[in-house]
Amino acid sequence: MSATIAITRAGPLTTVQDAGRFGQLRHGISASGPMDGVAYRLAGALAGADHGGIEITMAGIGLRLQSGQCRVGLAGGRFDARHNGLMLEWPGAVSLAAGDELTVMPGTAGNYGYLRFDGAPVLPTIMGSLATSSRARLGGLEGRPLQVGDVLELADAAGPAPQAVTARQAETGPIRFVWGLHADLFASPVRQRFVTTPFVISRQLDRMGVRLTDAGGVFADATILSLASDAIVPGDIQILGDGTPIVLMRDHQPTGGYPRIGTIISADLDRFAQLRPGTDIAFSSVSVVHAQQILRSQSP
Amino acid sequence: MTGSSVTDTFPTPTIAPLGDAALLVRFGTALTDSANRAAIALVALLQRAPVPGVVEVAPSLVSVLLRYDPLTAAAADIAAELRLRLYALAAAAPPPGREWTIPIRFDGPDFDSVAAALKLRPAAFIAAHNGAPLRVLATGFAPGFVYCGLHAEALVLPRRTEVRPMVPAGTVLFAAGQTAITATELPTGWHVIGSTEFNNFDPAAEPPTQLSPGDRVSFTVAP
Q1: Nearest CB neighbour to A265, from listed B20, B31, B184
Q2: d(CA B204, CA B212)
Q3: Among A169, B28, B57, B171, which residue's CB has the most CB atoms within a 10 Å radius?
C-alpha cells in the first residue's frame, strides 16, 4: 500500500540515495549513491526494497507517516531509533501505520544510516537514478538535502520479500588500499611513512570527501606537483598542494589534477565512510588481485 | 591539426590500475596534442570494439578510464584485451566528430588583460581566438564542461594566480592554450573572457550533454 511521509526533523545532508547514477562520468557527473553500500543493502533487505531510500547523517531524522502504511528497514552505524517512543533494534525493521512517529537519534557509532521503505519514493528519475548528488545538485528531491516539512510519497510496495538478515561483523584494522596512479611521484621514504604513520579523520568530511589530519607530517615536506587532470574514482587518496590528504568519496569531482598516492579498496570504503572525526586510522597496502578477493569473500 | 592518419604516431600508453574496479590508460602526464588525440581515438575504438566486462569508458585530456565490475571481471583480463586494441590504435580511423558553431560575447572581466598580456589589440585577439576551429579536448570536469584547444603558441597564457569563487553557466574561460565553457556554476582560476548562450547540459535530455571529445568547434562573435 502506498504511503505519505512527512519529515519532522532532518540532520544536515540527509539525502535520497539509490545504488548510484553510473555511466555519466563523461558528462561530468560522478555516480553518488550510498556512502555505506553494505548498510544500504542491509536496510533494503530488511525492508524488502530494491529501490532508493533515505541516507541520514549523524544527527538522525524524525518522520511521521501521514497516510497509508509502510515497512521501514534501518541500518548503518549505530543509531538510537524509536517507534512512537519505543526503542527499536538497530539494524532492524518496523511497520508504520498512519499517524506513527519514527525518531532516529544520534547513536554510538557511524556517520551514515539508511531508511529504506517497501514502497519506492515517488521522485523523478534523473539520468536513470534517484540518487542526490551534492556536487551537481541534482537527483533526489530537487537536487537538495531533505528538510523539515518535506513530504515524500511512497508507491505501492513492489520490492522483494523482506528478509530477517543480520549485520555482518564489521571488519576492523587498517584501511586497505592499492598504490595509486601517482604513487611513484612520492619519494620512497614518504611512501614508507604513509603505511607506518597513523592519520586522523578530521571534522571536514562530507559526501564529496574526507580530509585527514596528517599529525605525523608524512606529507609536510613532500613536493606536490599539479598534473594533467585524470579520472577520479571513489576512495582515491589525493594529496592537496599544501600536503593535506583527502579521500574522495561518492560525490567526488569526476576528474582531478592533484597526485593520488593510492585508492582505498572497494571492500573497505563503506567502513571508512563510517569512521567518525577523531578516529585514528592506519593504511595498509594490498594488491589489486587481493583487494578483489576480499571483495568477493564479503559478497553474499 | 585536428585530423589524424595512419602515419600519426601516438605516445606509448601505460595501463595502470585505479583502485580495484578501474584501469586508466595514460598517453602522457601533461597535455599534448598527440596524447589528447590518442585518448579520443581510443574511446572511439572502444565504442566499436568494446572490452568485455567494461561497464564505463570515460575520456579525460590525456587518459581514458575503464570501469569494470570487480566481482565478475579481473583486471588482468581487461588489460590483456585492452592491449590488443591499443596495438590497432595507430591504424584506427579517427573518430569523425561533429561540427559546432558557438557564438561568444567577449564581455568577460579578464578580456582586456588577456589581450594585453598577449600583446594584441582586442579586435586582433578576437580574430586570433576565432581564427581556426578548435577540437573538444575533453569533457567531464563538471556537468557539461568542455575544454577546447589547442590554441597556437602565441595564444598560450598561464592561469590566474587567484581563483574566482563562482562563475555562472555559459562562462567562456581561457588559459593554458585552451578555451573552456562552463555549463554549471563553478569556481575557476582561468581567465574569464566572455559568455555564451550555448548550453551544454540538460539533465532531462538523453544524453545530457551535446559536445563530445573530438568534435570541432568554430567560435564566432555573438551578434
Answers
A1: B20
A2: 18
A3: B171
